[in-house]
Amino acid sequence: MSEKIPTSDGTLIPEKKSRDIFSAWKIAFFGAIGLLIFLPIYSPDPFARILLFIPDGILRTFQVTILSILLALVIGLVAGLGRISRIRIINRISTVYVEVIRGIPLLVQIFYIYYALGRIVKIPDIASAIIAMAVCYGAYLAEIIRAGIQSVPKGQMEAALALGLSRRKAMRYIILPQTIKITLPPIGNEFIALLKDSSLVSILAVSDLLRRGREFASRTFEYFETLTIVALVYLVLTLFFSWLVGRMEERLNRDVR
Amino acid sequence: MSDNAKIRIENATKIFNVYIREDEETAGKKKKVRHVRKSKLSAVKDVTLTVQKGEVVLVIGPSGSGKSTLLRCINRLENLTSGEIWVDDMCVTDPKVDIRRVREEVGMVFQSFNLFPHITALKNIALAPVVVKGMEKTLANERARGLLKRVGLADKENSYPTQLSGGQQQRVAIARALAMDPHVMLFDEPTSALDPEMIKEVLDVMLALADEGMTMFVVSHEMGFAKAAAKRVIFMDEGEIVEEGPPEKLFNNPDKERTQKFLKHILK
């Protein structure tokens, strides 16, 4: 009974080896941090001044990113549920929203909300940046959430209904909690993508990281040095968040296993 | 129609729309033309039967004979095409009936267990009473512990479903259904996905349940269970009831040739 049959387990789909990925991650992350520390010490003249100039921009980038992703998650959840709704009109509206928004470049959407809609209702620049990004990423998140919900086995809904739960309660207590685990990695990726795309809002006079860098460089003409620092800061931020997402994924796996 | 009837199925018919894809080779050419043909499949044909209060009825039949479909129509996981099903005095097939009330009365156990993988065994059992009936959480947990003990898994309350064996999962699933205090239990091939060693532990729980007088409608090929607990065995084939009778009679000398053929296969 307990005699071991010599089989190789799990070689068909190799699991993500945290060590390999971590070492690659380490090189990039600590390399970037190292450069950020080394450069200002090595040549404090432009680099230290740049580093002192941009923290406002980092905060603004954070603000825009976090508010956008929160709003995008709300929009994405509503539209994602709408995409699987049995009420035809809701289903259609959600599908049209997703298809239209995914087909228009984010930069165009940002311009559109700020300049084109700005002629009808005046929206402050930061608000229109956040709205544009949330509407855009909401569409991507809607598709991720829809796919996540649909990947929960059919039997789960059946079991919940058979116990007397309404569809709504089954969604809330049974299906959505399982969706979170499935969709966390792609949502984390979208978050990181949004962090990077938030640099687009610098065209709306929002003083984010990139714009602060450009403000500095346009005064001193030290474009090479400034943009190097800006790129490194973006890299450290995104790598930090990809680590965070990985940790959350691990934790959820431990619970649900 | 006696007052004791728990489940009444009258002239139940279920027709599925099926889409058959046909790759047709046009004469002489290698090019294939793809057709999608819509056709109808009668899974259940004009079935009438009654299950009395406290009765254990076993349905057997080859795969595709409509037995699972019939069972799933009782709590309306599938809709009948025509005919009526009554549970107590509630007409399941009436679109106006509050189907959730029916489902509270009727517990169901699935072939693939369908436990909720994101919560512990205890919470699997306590969830529905809290969410559906608004029971106090502490009370629901306490009752869930009692049910786990009843199915012999008192020490597993904090285990997640994937940490349990198939037999243990199915016993938790039975406890989960019992937590809603159903008057009728439906079992859809509860032991088909289990190793032989685990079948017994599940059947023991089912036997105990039958002894307590639970009304049970079971789709299964477990002869042992049938002989020990079932009053009636129904043999279905191609959506129709071919033959029914007490287990000794149906298993040992069935009247119909079709039944004999089928039994020869599964008794082998």
Structure characterization notes:
The complex is a heterodimer of chains A (257) and B (268). Chain A is mostly helical and 257 residues long. Chain A has helices spanning 18-42, 44-53, 55-83, 88-102, 106-116, 125-150, 154-162, 167-197, 209-220, 223-256. In chain A, helix 6 (125-150) crosses helix 8 (167-197). The radius of gyration of chain A is 23 Å and the shape is flat. Chain A starts with 17 loop residues before the first helix and ends with a helix. In chain A, 31% of the residues are buried. The model of chain A has no long low-confidence stretch (mean pLDDT 87). By secondary structure, chain B is of the alpha/beta class. Chain B has 9 helices and 10 strands. In chain B, a hairpin with a 6-residue loop joins strand 1 (5-25) and strand 2. The longest helix of chain B has 16 residues, at 196-211. Classes of the chains: A mainly alpha (257), B alpha/beta (268). At the A-B interface, helix 7 and helix 8 of A face helix 2, strand 6, helix 3 and helix 5 of B.
Question: What is the gist of this entry?
Answer:
The complex is a heterodimer of chains A (257) and B (268). Chain A has ten helices and no strands. With 257 residues, chain A is mainly α.
Architecture blueprint of SSEs:
The complex is a heterodimer of chains A (257) and B (268).
Chain A: H1 18-42, H2 44-53, H3 55-83, H4 88-102, H5 106-116, H6 125-150, H7 154-162, H8 167-197, H9 209-220, H10 223-256
Chain B: E1 5-25, E2 32-52, E3 56-60, H1 67-74, E4 82-87, E5 90-91, H2 99-105, E6 106-109, H3 121-133, H4 137-150, H5 166-178, E7 184-188, H6 196-211, E8 215-219, H7 223-229, E9 232-237, E10 240-245, H8 247-252, H9 257-267
Parallel strand pairs in B: 3-8, 3-9, 6-7, 7-8
Antiparallel strand pairs in B: 1-2, 1-4, 4-5, 9-10
Helix pairs in contact in B: 3-4, 3-5, 4-5, 5-6
